[in-house]
Amino acid sequence: MSKTKYSEKAQKKVGKVMKEFKEGKLKSSSGDKVTSRKQAVAIGISEAKEAGLKVPKQKKKKDVSS
Q1: Which among 37, 48, 56, 63 would be 20 to 30 A from 20, CA to CA?
Q2: What pLDDT shows up at residue 26?
Q3: CA 23, CA 15: separation in Å to the nearest integer?
């Protein structure tokens, strides 16, 4: 099983954003304080993409309908 690979710089970018989140300084685009860990990671990945860093594509979710 292979893991998705993020570039070193992308990992550092997400790490920097997570540090801001832990310190309570991270704000969303609307200016509100970010309280969700998942949202903080999403912001970090988004910023890494904007900077043109290597970030794998999002996995497609399977439709579970029976």
Answers
A1: 56
A2: 93
A3: 12
**Concatenated DSSP letters for 7-65?**
-HHHHHHHHHHHHHHHHT--B-TTSPBP--HHHHHHHHHHHHHHTT---PPPPPPPP--
Q: Binning pLDDT at 50, 70 and 90, where does residue 59 land?
A: confident
Amino acid (1-letter code) at residue 55? V
Instruction: Tell me the whole-structure pTM to 2 decimals.
Output: 0.75
- Asked if residues 40 and 17 have their Cβ atoms less than 8 Å apart, the reply is yes
